[in-house]
Amino acid sequence: LSNLDARLRRRVRTDIRELQQRLGFTAVYVTHDQDEALAVSDRIIVMKDGSIAQQGAPRELYDAPASAFIADFMGEANVMRCDVIETDGEIATIAIEGLRHKVIHRSIKQGPAQLAVRPNAIMLTPTTGSGLFNGQITHSAYLGDHVEYEVKTGHGSLFVVDTTVDTALPPHTDVTIAFKDRGIAVIGG
């Protein structure tokens, strides 16, 4: 999309939302554009194979997807295996290699599970020794306000978006991987 097309799409989304709120009517808006759905909706219903896969508020579907399908459908997500090693109330401690991280677990039991991690929820630190969760950058692309990385790990390839553009890491850099608190969800086994 050109910058003009992108601005026009944002304006149309804003106009639709403002009109609906000002007039106070209920509207059903069918779209395959996740950005539009997130921007104009109070409630989203995601369908898969003719059935409701998940429904809820935009933030709920984005932050707490119920499956790998929803995680990827509502925005790009890295899905990887993890182990739920402990639960305490609504919080679970997950493990991937030596990395331990606390996350809301939504009734997922201890044992093998899947973890959905948004590309901007991954933090990379160059490492010279053994880290907790290691990888190696295979691709690095500077895009002005962010850098996109592909990182090879023992759990598959990760797509990472980093807004720290002062020092982009080059390919073949060994890294330790950590997660931010937002943008990560346990989604089942």
Question: How would you portray this structure in words?
Answer:
By secondary structure, the protein is an alpha+beta fold. Helices cover 21% and strands 42% of the residues. It is built from 4 helices and 12 strands, in the order ααββααββββββββββ. 22% of the residues are buried.
Low-pLDDT ranges:
none
Number of strands: 12
Residue-averaged pLDDT, rounded?
Answer: 89
Sketch the topology as an H/E string, one letter per element.
HHEEHHEEEEEEEEEE
Strand portion: 35-45%
Question: Keyphrases for this structure?
Answer:
single chain, alpha+beta, five-stranded antiparallel β-sheet, 12 strands, flat, 189 residues
Brief synopsis:
The chain is α+β, with helices and mostly antiparallel strands.
Can you lay out the helices and strands and say which pair or pack?
Elements: H1 3-23, H2 34-40, E1 44-48, E2 51-56, H3 58-63, H4 68-73, E3 78-88, E4 91-96, E5 99-104, E6 111-117, E7 122-126, E8 134-142, E9 147-153, E10 156-162, E11 174-179, E12 184-188
